[in-house]
Amino acid sequence: MVSSSSAIALESLEKMEKLIMAIHKKAHLTGLAAAFLLSASAITHTALAGSITDPANDFIPTFAGTHDPSLDVLSFSTTFDGATFHIAATENGDIASFPTGRFVIGFNRGAATSNFSSIGLPNIVFDSVITLNSNGVAGGRDLVTGNPITLPAGSATILGSTFKIDVPAALLPSQGLLPAQYGVNLWPRDTAVPAVPTSDPQIADFAPDATDLIVGTLLAVPEPSSLALLAAGLLGLRFAKRRRELD
Q1: CB-side neighbour CA atoms (13 Å) of 87
Q2: Domain total for the chain?
Q3: Beta strands in the chain (DSSP E)
């Protein structure tokens, strides 16, 4: 016969064992949860660009300049990463080899003060412009305030038939639209042609051809290693839950 003191001791040991098992399970689940959260935190934010491709040799009918390949847009994109607009374009020829080339990127921030209705393109609207000459000199103008836009040093790069321009969002303040809603368009010019406001004979091409491109937005995109870690964390949590149910 077991004494009352022995029974109490045995009961205490059983309670202690159950407590230790509960702590162990909790620690196991907490570790897996931590791994899961760690994998989730490894997800990176990647900018998804608003981008288009443009047909080759589609110089517009009103263009009176040299049909140089560098003035023919093949692709154009603009990405907003939360702080900076990243503009990129590929032309059909070497940019630096044509000295009178100028690339104008029009932004519509909501005011849409200007358009090209005079040449039959009323849906290309803008209220500010960023410019890049074929010699690498970049700048711009806010057409609402009339003030010039001065880009930071090194903002623009030209490499063969491609160029890139980084524009801080502070230089393009909203006029009613969110930055990720801005419209944008690219039109190369031949500055050797005399300017005529009513027909714009300097403009060689538009990208897009007849409307504005909407600036790209941000998406949460996991890296491949993060996806593997996330999957492992989810499987571990499922296995631990199943074990607990069986126990």
Answers
A1: 27
A2: 2
A3: 44-48, 50-53, 73-80, 84-91, 101-108, 114-116, 121-126, 128-133, 138-142, 156-159, 162-168, 183-190, 213-214, 217-221
Region label for 136, one of left (φ > 0), alpha (ψ between -120 and 50) or beta (otherwise)? left
Q: DSSP assignment, residue 148?
A: B
Strands (E), 3-120: 44-48, 50-53, 73-80, 84-91, 101-108, 114-116
Q: Give the position of tokens 């981008």.
A: 51
- The pLDDT assigned to 15 comes to 56
Residue-number span of the structural domain to which 227 is assigned:
4-43+222-246
Q: Which of 192, 223, 188, 233 minimizes the C-alpha distance to 207? A: 188
Taking the model in full, what pTM does it have?
0.72
The Cα–Cα gap between 148 and 128 comes to 10
More confident residue, 220 or 90: 90
Q: What is the mean pLDDT of residues 104-126?
A: 97
Cα–Cα distance, 176 to 112 (Å, whole number): 10
Say if residue 56 is in the same domain as residue 153: yes
Task: Calculate what percentage of the chain has a pLDDT beyond 90.
Answer: 65
Query: Is the same domain home to 11 and 23?
Result: yes
